[in-house]
Design brief:
Elements: E1 3-4, H1 5-12, H2 16-25, E2 32-33, E3 40-42, H3 44-58, H4 63-71, H5 77-106, H6 119-126, H7 128-136, H8 139-149, H9 154-176, H10 184-200, H11 206-218, H12 220-227, H13 233-245
C-alpha cells in the first residue's frame, strides 16, 4: 500500500507540516520520494512507526525522547509496546477517576483533592528507562547511552540517523559488489559500524555487537529497516558481524 503524504496525513490525523518536519529530523521518513516531482509516498511500515510515535506522544514523551528511544541500536518494539500499554492503563484509570469526580461535583457532592494526583503515572514513566535496561540488554551500556545522548539535540539525532543509513547503504553496496561477509573490506565496515555505535551511544564491545547482529535478522523491524537498502542486507550484515566477533 502506497499513500501520498496528504492521504497518510488524513489517515493518521497528523498534519502535512508535521510529517515534513518528522522527515527533516529523521524521525519518520517516507518510503519513497519521487526524484522528479518530490512527492513523498508512505507505506505500511511507515504507518507502524507512526503508531509507535503517536503512542509516545499520547504519553507526553518529548519529541527528543521519542527520537532517542526509536533510534536506539537495541530498541525492542515488543517490549516498548508492553510498556506503553502499562502507562496508558494508568492514564486511563486516572481519567476514569476524574470523570467520576466530575459526576459527583455536578450533583453537588464534595470530591477529594487527591483525585488530581498524577504521581503514580509520572513515577511509572520515570521508571521507564530503568525497566528498559532490564528488557533491552546490557544495563551498563544502557546507562552509558542514556548519559551520552541526554543532551543530543533533534539536529544531532537527525545526523545520527543519516549516519546509520549511510553505513547500512555501504553494507548493501558491499553485498551488491559480490564481496563476502569475511572479506577484508566488509570486516573493516563492521569495525566502522562498531565505532559509530561506541562514539554515539555506548561502548560497543564485541559481545554487545554480536547480540545486535543477531537481532538484525531476528527482529522484523530491524530486518525491514536494513533491507530497505537492498534485499538481504540484514542477513549479510549479521553474517559479517558474526565473523568479526568470532
Amino acid at each position: 500500500m502506497k499513500m501520498l503524504i496528504r492521504e497518510f496525513a488524513k489517515l493518521t490525523g497528523v498534519s502535512i507540516r508535521t510529517l515534513h518536519y518528522y522527515d527533516e529530523i529523521g524521525l519518520l521518513k517516507p518510503s519513497i520520494v519521487d526524484e522528479q516531482n518530490g512527492y513523498r509516498f508512505y507505506d505500511e511500515e511507515n504507518l507502524e512507526r507512526m503508531q509507535e510515535i503517536l503512542f509516545y506522544r499520547e504519553l507526553d514523551f518529548p519529541l527528543k525522547s521519542i527520537m532517542s528511544i526509536l533510534s536506539s541500536p537495541d530498541y525492542n518494539k515488543k517490549s516498548a509496546l508492553k510498556e506503553q500499554k502499562n502507562l496508558l492503563t494508568l492514564k486511563k484509570q486516572r481519567l476514569e477517576r476524574l470523570i467520576s469526580a466530575l459526576d459527583k461535583a455536578m450533583k453537588g457532592e464534595k470530591i477529594a483533592m487527591n483525585i488530581f494526583d498524577n504521581s503514580e503515572f509520572e513515577k511509572k514513566r520515570e521508571e521507564y528507562d530503568k525497566e528498559a535496561q532490564e528488557k533491552w540488554g546490557n544495563t551498563a551500556a544502557y546507562k552509558e547511552s542514556a548519559e551520552k545522548t541526554k543532551s543530543y539535540s533533534l539536529e544531532k539525532w537527525k545526523d545520527l540517523n543519516s549516519g546509520m543509513d549511510s553505513l547500512m547503504a555501504e553494507f548493501a553496496q558491499c553485498k551488491s559488489n559480490g564481496l563476502a561477509p569475511e572479506n577484508a573490506e566488509t570486516q573493516a565496515l563492521v569495525k566502522k559500524w562498531q565505532d559509530f555505535i561506541s562514539a554515539n551511544y555506548y561502548n560497543c564491545t564485541k559481545e554487545i555487537l554480536s547480540g545486535l547482529g543477531k537481532m538484525y535478522t531476528a527482529d522484523e523491524r530491524f530486518k525491514e529497516n536494513i533491507n530497505k537498502h537492498g534485499e538481504g542486507t540484514a542477513e549479510f550484515m549479521a553474517a559479517a558481524i558474526e565473523i568479526y566477533c568470532g
